[in-house]
Amino acid sequence: TYRTGYTEVDTTYLPLLIVRNVPGRVARGWYVAGVQRLLKLSNGRRLIVEADGSAFLFTSPSPGGDYTSAAGDETQLHRTGSEDYGTYVRSYADSTKVHFDSLGLMTRITDAWGVSVRYAYTDSTSGSPWRLPARVYDPYRTRPDSTAAPSAYTEIAYSGTNIYIRPPNPDGSSYASGRVTTLRLNSVDSSLRAVIDPDGDST
Question: Are 55 and 41 in contact (CB under 8 A)?
């Protein structure tokens, strides 16, 4: 606090966090809803970026792998394994858990009842946490003759300036190849030009 003439000024310094996402992850400014990314920062810090652009910083990892959440963030982050190759779980107050692999990719989200939605990504050889989601597995659709984990999934395929989205098959096997929603992007800036539904209607 300082005074100059008849004016009293209070100065408060607040930390500012700016996240510059890799452009064109789906279309410019568009991301797959619900998908989170975990980024490794200096000094052992971890940053989780959500699909809407929200970012949450975790600091001061303990020897046991527990991180300190920022003020106002009620989630907790825990690492299993080494700092370089460990996996992570972000826990919410309602018992929801988000799992990340060692690259920072969100592999699944599990609710309080143990129902999990799993994710698979493009380019398995890439070490980037910004790899694109390629499959979102439906937790409720499994082949009638199967006792394995749910095998039906939404497929997201990327081809040039087009993105093709195919929903899970009703019979629990992979995806419905004949039901395609197409996103068309601008070739210059990857902005979204049109959405074409499976019946051919465009918006």
Answer: no
Residue 137, phi then psi, degrees to nearest 5: -80, 135
Rg (CA), the chain: 21
147 contact partners, CB below 8 Å, separation of at least 6: none
Asked if 47 contacts 64 with a C-beta cutoff of 8 angstroms, the reply is no
Report pLDDT for 22.
52
Torsion of CA 17, 120, 155, 192, to 10 degrees: 20
With tokens 């690259």, the residue in question is: 103
Low-confidence ranges of the chain (pLDDT < 50): 1, 14, 23-24
- In this prediction, residue 56 carries a pLDDT of 93
Residues 6+ apart with CB under 8 A from 91: 75, 76, 77, 78, 97
The CA distances from residue 102 to 26, 85, 99, in Å, are 23, 5, 10
Distances (CA, A) of 112 to 91, 96, 137: 11, 5, 18
pLDDT of residue 45: 92
Beta 181-185 vs 192-196: how paired, if at all?
antiparallel
How far apart (Å, rounded) are the C-alpha atoms in residues 42 and 30?
28
